[in-house]
Design a protein that fits this description.
Blueprint (H helix, E strand, L loop, with lengths): L11 E5 L10 E4 L1 H7 L10 E5 L3 E4 L5 E2 L2 H8 L9 E6 L1 E2 L1 E2 L2 E2 L3 E6 L4 E5 H4 L12 H13 L23 H8 L5 E2 L5 E11 L14 E5 L12
Parallel strand pairs: 3-13, 4-13, 5-7, 6-11, 6-13
Antiparallel strand pairs: 1-2, 8-9, 10-11, 10-14, 12-13
Helix pairs in contact: 1-4
Length: 234
């Protein structure tokens, strides 16, 4: 698949915090360059979408570092930072719930046609590429969940929206059309389309806590560790 000319952005580890107690170690890592490649691949033609990462917001909610219910997912998404046409990426320790599903393999949960998703930090930072794939676990995880926010459902095969982490990033023309129609996609003065993302780190430390209420339908992504299968469910 083609990769149009674009400014090169470095892999950024935006923040890495060890939170007291030491069992809580959520951190923010976004491979902005990798996500730019996903959202500027050949199927976009000249309509590439630039991923733009804002400043990190830290929110002290130790009760939300480990997610085990849809109610906790709703509580995280109610913390939305910024305007409703800005995406929030929430980074936590562990999760096992999303959209009515309970499964220890869940590592991410995103609203469909929404503005929020939450992921486990350690998998967002995974720079390994599954055998035969063309992108890393972390890039697929973040780009897949952003795809849900932009209105995409799952599509089985060697695609970004496959219902399992397989290391592929392909999007077809219909998916690109859905993305470009999203209210989350803006155009700057130079005609460049872009999506603004506010990373939100959930911590155990005492910091101010902004809140905005919103909860839409959710898509989710799961992954196994060690001998467990890599997979998503919805």
């Amino acid at each position: 698949m083609g990769e149009p000319n674009m400014k090169v952005k470095t892999l950024i580890a935006i923040a890495a915090l060890l939170i007291a107690p030491l069992s809580h170690a959520a951190f923010v890592t976004i491979n902005e360059n990798g996500m730019d490649i996903v959202y500027s691949q050949g199927s976009f033609g000249e309509n590439s979408v630039d991923i733009r990462i804002g400043a990190i917001t830290s929110i002290a909610r130790p009760d939300l570092l480990d997610i085990s219910s849809d109610a906790e997912i709703a509580s995280i998404f109610a913390l939305h930072v910024g305007a409703q046409d800005v995406v929030n990426f929430y980074f936590i320790d562990t999760m096992s719930a999303c959209g009515g599903q309970i499964n220890v393999n869940i590592i991410g949960c995103g609203e469909v046609n929404g503005q929020d998703f939450v992921v486990e930090s350690v998998f967002a930072a995974d720079n390994s590429t599954p055998a035969g794939g063309d992108t890393t676990v972390g890039v697929q995880l973040l780009s897949h969940e952003l795809g849900h926010n932009l209105g995409l459902g799952h599509r089985s095969g060697n695609f970004l929206m496959n219902p399992s982490i397989n290391g592929f990033m392909a999007l077809n023309a219909a998916e690109v059309a859905t993305i470009l129609a999203s209210q989350l996609v803006h155009t700057d003065g130079n005609g460049q389309r872009f999506i603004t993302i506010n990373p939100v780190l959930i911590t155990g430390a005492a910091v101010p806590e902004p809140s905005t209420m919103l909860l839409l339908a959710m898509g989710l992504i799961l992954v196994g560790v060690g001998s467990r299968k890599l997979r998503f469910f919805s």
